[in-house]
Write a structure and sequence with these properties.
About 30% of the residues lie in helices and about 15% in strands. It is built from 18 helices and 21 strands. Strands 9, 10, 12, 14, 15, 16 and 18 form a seven-stranded antiparallel β-sheet that branches. Strands 8, 11, 13, 17, 19 and 20 form a six-stranded antiparallel β-sheet that branches. The chain has a two-stranded antiparallel sheet with strand order 1-2. Strand 5 and strand 6 form a beta hairpin. It starts with a helix and ends with a strand.
Amino acid sequence: MIDDEIEIFSSAVLGLTIKCARCHSHKFDPIPQRDYYRLAAIFKGALDENDWLKPNRQGKFKPGVRDRMLPYVTTKEHDAWKASGGKAEDQPLIRALWDRGEPSPTYLLRRGNHLTPGRLVGPGVPSVLTDGKTPLRLEPSGPGAKKTGRRLALAKWLVTADHPLTSRVMVNRIWKHHFGTGIVKTLDNFGKAGARPTHPELLDWLAVRFVENGWSIKSMHRLIMTSAVYRQSSQVTASHADFDLDNELLSRMPLRRMEAEVVRDSLLHAAGQLDLTPFGPADPINARADGLVTSGQYGKDGQRWRRSIYILKRRTQPVTILQNFDVAGMDPNCVERTESIVATQALHLSNNQMVRGLADALADRVWKQAKDSPSAQIELAYRLALGRGPNSDELRVSLESLQGLSREWEKENPGTRHTLVATTHLWIREIEPERIFEDDLISVWSSRSSDKGRRFGLVEFDISSVADLDLTRAQLELGVLDTKPIRQSAAVIPAGIESYNWSLYQKNKSVKAKPITGLGRYEFDMADERVGGYVAGRGATSEELQLIKTKALSDGRLTLVLMADEDGSAYRRDWDDGVYHRTRNNPPRLVIHDSRRDPQVAARNALHTFCHTLVNSAAFLYID
């Protein structure tokens, strides 16, 4: 940990590879081995390997549970927390580093081996950055403070106006984030082995301005973004190709691909699904059986996606979309991200179900606001996805594409859509056979679930309105409240399920149930769906369409029982009923299509395809 601390500090703040001096004097830069251990001595007041501070374990806590170090919390604070109803497992945790005032001596370790200590060294900074004669000035952090003052002295030394590196390293990093490459390309190495600055005078001038403006990062951003070099076009002209092909002279604005977090956040923002709620616990991640790691949704009701900065970070389980787009590593710090162009990026955007769902949400947003005008749809889609309108060529090509897609979708037009909302919906429970569960979700649990009892969902639809139609397609759509794995089948039972319970079902319906293989069949692992929306099951087979037709002509009602598979797995899924307090107002619905063509279906499907293509484009991924 101490070595990581020195590596992070020296590379990110000083722009030097001081870690190379742990075992021997630096091979390229004038950094003797003693400077490494002098720097370690500065941090030793808080990070002392000979007096490591371990968390105190409370007797009532279970082994392996992280505890807060209660001796360092005031009695008043602890009593207030306890009075508020806090529980041991919910106890607030803090992470803190502080100077304890009495560090052990620091020795130069020969070849970096703790078993071969050399001479004693005191706290100090790299001598190459000073006159080599003035010792580090240590001051107490406050009146009566029993601290070493070493880290405070280091901090004050770093922000002295004449410090040779701190301001240069910082403005170089800011420059890199605006232009893709730093003035010194090796952000963590300003030494002899690092790259030479392409514009040394500019780097010096920016560093001086940075200090003069009170080390204000905001002021530096403003200065750069209002400059002529930043406001250039990225278009490559013939003269650029002749004298500055690699853009080392910044004769044009370089194209920059969005960082991993920006890609995900931009997808959510364009789809209108981004929740800007700040702070709070990290949003969960889901490690799926197929290897994908997806970000969970925020809030107790799990309905929203927040910015990527709030996703739980684990070295062993990086979120797949972020990893595919080169998210920063965590070992121990990432000075500069790699920028790869690989097939998995295009495949993820093309095939991932969450990305497709967000593209569909973008299309629905455009359809709702721009109505049925193709030009208005394209204009709005560009502004939502790219932050700008299309130019004349883009508008022409997009119109041609949208028209072509509409013609292709017209060939697959499933006909006029009829959406029938369930008239009755409830669930029944094996271990409470007499209880009625109406207006209380639609639970579908297997016998291996937590309470060891099966739960069936019962739904009934009035289908009399489609009795005279030529049916071509039918699907059951259920509202998603959670993303637990589910394998679910269905059966058709006689109508009339009002006020039903498990006993009545077994007595009157069970023996008459007719299993079906298409309608009502669901197979989901985890996080493939969007909480708060609908998800469609498998489509009805031709025999099932005929059964729906027969039911519509007879009593005009279709009644289904939804059952989890009994394959040895513990399935437990609660579907939305549109009434329960966790509802997203998505009651069960039966979507039926007849043979009559609906011209809007093809146009809407074409817009969905267009929006999915737009978020897969280089125009979306790259910042001009």
